[in-house]
Amino acid sequence: MKNKLLLIFITSIFIIIFIFFYKGLQNTNIYTPETKINNKIPLFNGELFYINKTVNSSDLFKSDKFYLLNIWSSWCVPCRQEHSLLMDLSKSKKVELIGINYKDTKVNAKFFLAEFGNPYKKIIFDQNGVNAIEWGAYGVPESFLINDGIIIKRYIGPLNKKLFKEIKSLIK
Amino acid sequence: MFYSTIGHYSLVLGLCFSLILVYFSIKNFQNSKILNTKILSFTFLQFFLVVISFLCLITSFVLSDFSNETVFNNSHTTKPLFYKIAGTWGNHEGSLLLWLLVLTLFIFIFFLKTKNKPLKYRILTLIFQQIIIIGFFIFLIETSNPFNYLYPIPEEGLGLNPILQDPALAIHPPILYLGYVGSSIIFSSALAATCLNIVSKEWASHIKKWIVVSWVFLTLGILLGSIWAYYELGWGGFWFWDPVENVSLMPWLALTTLLHCILVLEKKQVLTSWVIILSISTFTLSMCGTFLVRSGILNSVHTFANDPERGLFILVFLFSLIFISLFIFFFFHKSSQNIPNSFFWLSKETSIIINNWFMMYFLSVVLIGTIYPIFLEVLSSQKISVGPPFYHKLIIPFLIPFLIAMAIGPKLKWIKSNIEDRVYLILLLVISIILSFLIVKNFDSNFLLNTILVSSALYLFFITLRDFFIKKYSNLSQNIAHFGFSLLILSILFNNLFSSEIVTNLKVGETFENSKTKIVFESIGQKKEKNYESIVTNFIIENSNGVNENLSPELRIYNKPNIVTSEADIKTTLMSDKFIVINIVQNQDYFNVRYQVKPFMLWIWFSVLLISFGGLMSFFKKEYEK
C-alpha cells in the first residue's frame, strides 16, 4: 500500500516535469532585440530618401536637441494611425522628426507621404531593414526619443494620444 | 549521393533488424534453454550496418558531397581533412549516428562478454537495449536523418562552426558518448536484473566493469570539454556552469555514486535499491542531457539544433523510459528481507552512504540550477540565468565535510571499524589547518571560509599522500582517484585565489604598466590559412623580476561561415598559465586586451587525468579488496 502511494506520487511528479518540459518546448528562443534606453544612439550609415546620398548618424543627430526617430512603412497599417500625431508633433519647434522608411518601395512611400503629409525633416531609406536592426527595433512602427545623442524613451508600436502628451511634456 | 543512399538504407535495415531481434529474443526468452545463435549474428549485423552507415557519412564529408544536407550544412571544400572528418559528429545528425553506433557496439560487446551469465538475463538486457536502440533509430530516420538529399546540388557548403574547429573538440564528443552510452548498458542490465530478481554480488561484480568504463570515459569527456572551453572560448575559465556542462556533470555525479554503491553491493548484499535507482537515473540523466541540448529548450554555446519536433520526440521517449523503469522497479524489486539494512555507525558502509547523500545533494543543486530557468519561463515567461554564484554558494560549504569524509571513509573497515592511527589523523589535520592559514592569510576576502576549505582539501591531500607509503594499505586505484580529487580541489581553489587579471584598451605601440606587470603592444600582422584569415598581434609581458614573455593572440576571421573568433594565446608553465586575449572594439582603432595569470591550470587537467587513471586501474585489477 505504502509502495503504491509512493509510485503514484513519483509518477505524478514526473508527469508534472513532463508537462513543464513540453510547455517549455513551445516557447522557442526567438531573437530578442536589445533595449537601448539610456544608451547612446547606435552608429550607422544610411541612404537618404530623396537624394542618393549616404549620411551617418553624427550628420543626422546634432547634440543638445530633441529628436524623434520614427520607423515606418507605407504597408504598415498602425503607421497610418499614428501619422496624424506625428504631423502635429512636426509643428513643434523643439523636436525634429527623422524617419526610417523600413522595407518599402520609394513609389509607395511617396504616395503615403503625399496622402498623409510628411512630418519628417529627413528620411532614411532602409530597403533591407538593416538600419532598423542596428537600432534594435522589433518592427514597425517604432519610435525613439533622443536627446543629446542619448535614447531617452522608446515606443514600441504606434503612438497614441497619451504617449503623445508624454513626449510633449518630455521635450519641454 | 551514392553513399547517402547506402547510408540511409543501412539505417532502415538496421531498424528492421532491431524488430527481428526483439521478436527472436522474446521467443527465445519463453521457450529455450540455449541461446538462439541468430540473436548473436543479428546483433553483430546490426552493429555492422550502423558502421557502414557511419562510414558513408564520413565519406560524404571527406568527398564534400553537398547533395547531402548534413554535409552542406556543416562542411566546406576549404576545410582541412581533419575537420571534415571531425565535422561528421560535430553536428546534430552525425552525433546521433555516433550515439547509435556506440549503442550497437556496446550491446554486441556485452553479449560477447556475458557468456557465463544466465541466459534469461542476457536476453532481457538485449530487449531493453533494443528498445533504446529502436527509439534512436526512429528518431534518427524520422526527425534528423543524416542522409537527406538536396536538389539542386549546391556548389559549396555552409561550413563548420569555427569554435568547433579544435582538436580537443574533435575527440570530445566520441569520448563523452562512450561514457553516456555505456550507462545505457548499465540501465538495461539493471532493469533486467531487477525483473529476474538477481541483483546480487555476482551481478554487481560483473556490471562494475561497465560502470568503471563508462565512468572513465565520462570523466575524460568532461575533461576534454573543459580543456576546449578554456583554450577555444577565450573566456579564461574552464568551467562556467553552463547548462550543457551541467548536463554532463549530472550523469557523472550519479555514476560516481553508483560506482561507490556497487562496491558495497559486491561485498555485502545491501544497497540494492540505491544501485538500481542510480543505474536508472544515470542513463535518464544522460538522455535528459541530450534532450536539453538538442531541443533548443536551453540557449547555450553547444545548442546546435533548434527544432521543437526533435525535442518533443526525445521528451516523449525519455519519459517513456522513465515510466517503464519506474514500474519495473516498483513491481519487481524486492528488497532483501533477511539481511539487516542497518549498519554500524563507524564502518565503510556508513561512509559510503554519507558519500551518497552528499553526491545526491550536489546532483540536486546542479539539476535545480539547470532546469529551474525552464520552469520559471513556463510559469511566468521570465527569463533568468542561473550563474556561478548560485552553485558556489550552495556547493562550497558542503564540500568541506565531504572532503573530510572522503579522507577518513576509506580507512574504515567493512561491517565494524575503529579509527586507527588516530595520532596521525589529528596531526595531519593540525598541519593542514596551519598551512592553509599561512597560505590564505594574505587574502582579505572570505578569510574564514577559504582557510577551512583549503585546510580540508589539504587534509585529504596529505592523508591520501601518506597512504601511498603505507604497505598494508593496498587499494591503490581508490587512493589514486581520491588523491587526484584532492589535487583537483586544491588546484581549483588556488587558481581562484591567486588569479590576477588586467583589462585595458591598447593601440599598437602603447604600453600598459602597473606595479607588477608591464604589457607592451608590439606589433600587428596578418596571416592567411586555408579556412580563415587572421590578425596576429604581438605582446611583450614583463613582470617585476624582469622576465620577458612573448604572447601573440589572434583574431580569426573564418571564411565559411563568416565568423570572427578570438584566439587566446596561452603560455603554459608548470605552475601557472599566462593568458592573453584581444577583442575588437567597434568603430575604434584600439583593441580590448585582457591579460590573466592563472596558476595551477595544468594541475587541474593533470588531477582529472589522475582521477580517471585511478578508475582505469581498478578496471584492470582482478579483485577489489581482500
Structural summary, described in words:
With 172 residues, chain A is an alpha/beta fold. Chain A has a single domain, classed as Glutaredoxin (3-Layer(aba) Sandwich), CATH 3.40.30.10. Chain A has 6 helices and 7 strands; from the N terminus they run H-E-E-H-E-H-E-H-E-H-E-E-H. Chain A has helices at residues 2-26, 57-60, 77-90, 106-116, 130-134, 161-170, and strands at 45-47, 54-56, 66-72, 95-102, 122-126, 142-147, 150-156. In chain A, strands 5-4-3-6-7 form a 5-stranded mixed β-sheet. A two-stranded antiparallel ribbon of chain A has the order 1-2. The model of chain A is unreliable at 29-33 (pLDDT under 50). Among the domains of chain B are: 1-161; 500-602, no CATH class. Chain B is 62% helix and 11% strand. Chain B contains 17 helices and 10 strands. Chain B has helices spanning 2-30, 37-62, 69-74, 81-86, 92-113, 119-143, 167-195, 201-233, 243-267, 272-294, 308-332, 348-380, 388-408, 422-440, 447-467, 476-498, 601-620, and strands spanning 500-506, 511-513, 517-528, 532-543, 548-551, 554-558, 563-567, 569-572, 576-584, 591-599. In chain B, strands 2, 3, 4, 5, 6 and 7 form a 6-stranded antiparallel β-sheet that branches. Chain B has a 4-stranded antiparallel β-sheet with strand order 1-10-9-8. In chain B, helix 1 runs antiparallel to helix 6 (119-143), helix 9 (243-267) runs antiparallel to helix 12 (348-380) and helix 15 (447-467) packs antiparallel against helix 16 (476-498). The longest helix of chain B has 33 residues, at 201-233. Chain B is flat, with a radius of gyration of 26 Å. Chain B starts with a helix and ends in a 6-residue tail after the last helix.
